[in-house]
Description:
Distance between the termini: 28 Å
Number of helices: 0
Order of helices and strands: EEEEEEEEEEEEE
Number of strands: 13
Strand order of the largest sheet: 1-4-7-10-12-13
Shape: globular
Structural class: mainly beta
Amino acid sequence: MGFGVTINRGTSIGHHTSIGDFSTVNPGVHIAGHCRIGEGVALGMGSIVFDHISIGDGSKIGGGSVVNKDIPAGVLAYGNPCKVIRDLKG
């Protein structure tokens, strides 16, 4: 766990998962094992992150999303399956 990480109630985080500084894991999020959550990431309520997934720094994942593939840095992504909606950079 990084510095300033917020983990809310009703979450589960699998083994060998790292969460970067200032990230937020909202209520009801389930993160499987061997995941990498970057710095400043926000995982919306009820999101599910599959095994061996990487979410890049500064990305925002919408509530109820099912993340089954890597998400690049600095994007807004949501849905089932989760997909990039728009770039948050610049």
